[in-house]
Amino acid sequence: MIENLPFGALRVFESASRHLSFKQAAEELFITPAAVSQQIKSLEHQLGVKLFNRHNRGLTLTDAAKQGLPLLTRGFDSLIEAVDLIRGSRQEPRLTIWMAPSFASKWFVPRLQRFADMHPGIDLDISASPNLVDSTASNVSIPVENFRRDNVDIAIRFGKGAYPGCRVDKLFSVSAIPLCSPGLMRGKHPLKTPDDLRFHTLIHDDTRYEGRPDWATWLKAANVSGIDAGRGLHFNHGNLAINAAVDGQGVVLSMKALASGDIAAGRLVAPFNLSLPLEYAYYMITLEELTDQPHTAAFREWILQEAGQEDESNPAG
Q1: What is the pTM assigned to this prediction?
Q2: Shared domain check, 301 and 167
Q3: In terms of pLDDT, which residue wins out, 169 or 87?
Q4: CA proximity to 8, closest of 18, 25, 24, 49
Q5: How many other C-beta atoms can be found within 10 angstroms of the C-beta atom of residue 57?
Q6: How many Å apart are CA 317 and CA 300, to the nearest integer?
Q7: What is the span of the domain harbouring residue 40?
Q8: Residue 97 shares a structural domain with residue 84
Q9: Per mean pLDDT, which range of 16-25, 83-92, 146-155, 255-264 is the poorest?
Q10: Which of 19, 43, 261, 283 could form a disulfide with 9 if both were Cys (CB 3.0 to 4.6 A apart)?
Q11: Whole-number Å distance between alpha carbons of 258 and 242
């Protein structure tokens, strides 16, 4: 019976079979390797068939899995094609957009109303995922298959800009700057020079991605010594780190773009005239065949205009 088919587990199996890796399947599907392993075990139990031979150096498919995989892949491709046809028949245009959580909440969402005012007939389906940064824990490129498999129209990603098979537009470069509550500019140990950081708590954004700014590098660029660059508050999410700085709990090293709303509102200031340019930047990635579609083109024009207002060559404060 079709209602008893384990579609989720079958999709996990199809991905793991293509990669011959639970880790790469997890990255493609935005789940954990442990979840992939559990889904495979559950599927093997339900089908009563072993699907993978597990070796010290990797995985191989069993004969049974080899026989079924081509038809399964063809079936999923047919489902994706069918969904694309159904989506294309809708009257109202809709864009599905992926982006990193911090970028979504701190930069994108505060500007979103302007797009809605300009294009009230275009609906947006926004998904925030931490996998949308280049990382040693994820593939550097976004495979075209990922866009089609998950019906994604546009991805906004922090990285180096190497995404084969896609249209890539650079939104803006970024720099690392210390930011703090205006209250820390006053008091017993006011922040006047970088050396004054020794009297204040350092706030760290420990989100795992390549190109992430760190206090050790910034302090070295500022010619400051004698400060333990690892001390202070550590957060695994950029939003939490920035919010802690807004609350006056210390000085955060972040990107001006992610804190632009708090800077404009006066909740954060940059106490020093020193920014550290980063190698990575924010990019908008689109499937080539979707680039010229009217609603995609409208979004692209709008966000490039918004991004053009970003200038991180001068710190705020």
Answers
A1: 0.63
A2: yes
A3: 169
A4: 25
A5: 5
A6: 30
A7: 2-88
A8: no
A9: 83-92
A10: 43
A11: 9
